[in-house]
Amino acid sequence: MTLVKPPVASHRRRSANAHRTRIWSGVLVCILFLLPLVWMLLTSFKQQRDIFSSPPSFFFEPTIAQYVDVLTRGGFAGQMLNTVIVAVGASVLSLIAGAMAGYALSRLRIRGAGVIGALILASRGVPPIALAVPMFLVARSLGITDTHITLIIAYCSFIVPYVMWLMRGFFLALPKELEESAMLDGCSRMGAFFRIILPISLPGLLSTFIFSIILAWEELLFALVLTNRNATTFPVAIAGMAGDTENGANWGALAAAGMITVIPVVILALLVQKWLIRGLAEGATKG
């Protein structure tokens, strides 16, 4: 007599195998993404002779000379301050404009709202160099090159579409009865937006704000074209390190500079990880 395995047990075994497969696939993807970061971290503590050793050395005498070199370079504090000002300013301005635009496209009866949203999103496909040169010509004619506000406005050109599309998804998932109840109590459309919708959408706003800062923090092209000295950001300084020595690039200093730019973003993400994960989870199931 042949015993037939219960279908429930077979289903549970397949589910368990699929769950383990997903976990190990996620671990593998994380390793692939973290490997360049780990390699950069190791390189930043190596001496020049250890960086070019063949085969690569994983055991070496660490040194902080590369970090000292980067931190003591002229203009380091000003460049980091410029990066913070521009990244935060562009993210805040983009969040304000993008959230209001996303709300309008998700709630108001605008003729061609879908087409408008698609066109705004399609603007992200325009090559940045096609926008950088006209922006430089306009800024030069107005006499506002090498200023924070010029760089902030330039960054908004590629951050606002991203913010608008993300926030539109959050707003679409919220029930319209929330605004209708507020307006029945005498609240205006804008009042309902600021008093009801924005507080509820705080996780989405925070996660979008973090990603906006990351986009602005690492941007190079606009900063390279629109700045010269006063508003130069740290990514421009890193690009300048690649050819500032007679014997070629100082890869140890470049790795140290890269780690210095990564650390603030990692710390920020860790501080708000609870809100960030909540916003990402809600954004993945909404819209």
From TrEMBL:
Location of this chain's protein in the cell: Cell membrane
Source taxon at top rank: Bacteria
Keywords: Cell membrane, Membrane, Transmembrane, Transmembrane helix, Transport
Family the UniProt entry places it in: Belongs to the binding-protein-dependent transport system permease family.
Pfam family, one: BPD_transp_1
Domain ABC transmembrane type-1: 80-272
CDD domains named among the record's database cross-references: TM_PBP2 (cd06261)
Bilayer disposition of the protein: Multi-pass membrane protein
SUPFAM superfamilies found in the cross-reference section: MetI-like (SSF161098)
InterPro entries membership: BP-dep_ABC_trans_perm (IPR050901), MetI-like (IPR000515), MetI-like_sf (IPR035906)
Keyword Signal: no
Membrane-spanning intervals of the chain: 21-42, 84-105, 112-137, 149-171, 192-217, 251-272
Organism: Microbacterium murale
The keyword rRNA processing appears for this protein: no
Gene3D superfamilies linked to this entry: MetI-like (1.10.3720.10)
Record protein name field: ABC transporter permease
